[in-house]
TrEMBL record:
Gene3D superfamilies, per the entry: Phosphate transport system protein phou homolog 2, domain 2
Protein family (similarity comment): Belongs to the UPF0111 family.
InterPro entries: PhoU-like_sf, Put_Phosphate_transp_reg, UPF0111_domain
Domain of life: Bacteria
Organism: Streptomyces coffeae
Matches recorded under PANTHER family: UPF0111 PROTEIN YKAA
Protein name: DUF47 domain-containing protein
Matching Pfam families: PhoU_div (PF01865)
TM regions (residue ranges): none
Amino acid sequence: MRFRLTPRETSFYDMFAASADNIVTGSKLLMELLGADSAARAEISERMRAAEHAGDDATHAIFHQLNSSFITPFDREDIYRLASSLDDIMDFMEEAVDLVVLYQVEELPKGVEQQIEVLARAAELTAEAMPNLRTMTNLTEYWIEVNRLENQADQIHRKLLAHLFNGKYDAIEVLKLKQIVDVLEEAADAFEHVANTVETIAVKES
């Protein structure tokens, strides 16, 4: 850790932790979606939308703090990138739930539950990691594991695409389901972006 003579604004750490905790809430709502009927899915969608709005508020709070702080705990560009990537995760999760409801999908294809399980695990790891930004400790295993999970998500996504194009579904259903599994894949990518940004910050601060 580099020695600094100037004080630093430390509220960023709490705000990043709050943003990550909100993502855990979103991942749990995704898990609920799997076994829910159409009526329950609509209610889950409303809760997910509220969680996404809370995520937006957390992101805006970070940006406001960034713009009003003279001294920041690490590079401004990295703070912006980290906050934006966390916000992207919530956006993608909310979009996936919204699409399931809007498209009135009766049954999600086998393999989507694996996608969501990967996202839930990545959410837990991210929430555990954010408080460690304060000390820059115990972070290496976090970004290694999230990168491994993203590779796993890629494999699941490819298998899902192969399943969707095997002739079982009609063309319109394929389009609907493909958009949903693609958005879930984007959420996995966003988790990796967060992990890569944390790694960049840790390297700079070491």
